[in-house]
Amino acid sequence: MTVAASEPELPSSYQLLRLGGVDSTNLEARRQAEGGASDKTVIWAASQSAGRGRRGRSWVSPEGNIYFSILLRLNGDVADAMQLGFVIANVIAESLSDFLPSGTKVETKWPNDVLLNGKKISGILMESESANDGKTLKWLIIGVGINVCAHPGTGEGGVITTALVDEGFDFQPTSIASILGDIVHKFDRGLTAWQKGGFAPVRNAWLARAAGLGGEITVRLPNETISGTFKDLNKDGALVLGINNSVERLITAGDVFISPTNGEMD
Length: 266
What we know:
The chain is built from 5 helices and 12 strands.
């Protein structure tokens, strides 16, 4: 697979750094941030030699897929900025739905995945740096990987994966640039809406596509594994897990397993 010659059309306020191979777009975005790169810098690479998912897991990154990171310099708290993980998940789901055949099932999966017909198509990795007070945001990096032409048999955590071309997507030489441009335009609108309207509309849109909502899930935490009903997201984006029909537990970090038919296996 060769890199598409076309450039994505980005909003005028975004700057593009296009690379062939890189260790990781998030690592490059961090280097750019520490070097003084401006707000809304997009790092786009054809391949990654050390792509990363959550908890340091590797992300297989051959050419033919989409790998990019957005560097943002926002005013506010780190905790609030992490809500943008839900914004970008909504954006990816909406954008892929626009490029795929009608009726294709695209879902968001807590905390940071997008599923296509029950299989993982995209992952998101959020990283940030705070000021000396530990709360105020210095910069935020939103890293995204999307399987377009290739995917591993299983992804991080044993999740069943897929690629766009295996789900009815008509790949063209300009496809990667077109999808990237569409996502960044939609993200810019989503960022503005979040800044003006807060998290509630983002949360509602995410829940409308949420995989496993209302059903039984298993959550793997660092020191325990628990099962229950995926009841809701709270106002900050934590997963609300119902246990034994009486106890509710807020999950702020962990790996969610729905069922083998929904794209995951233990």
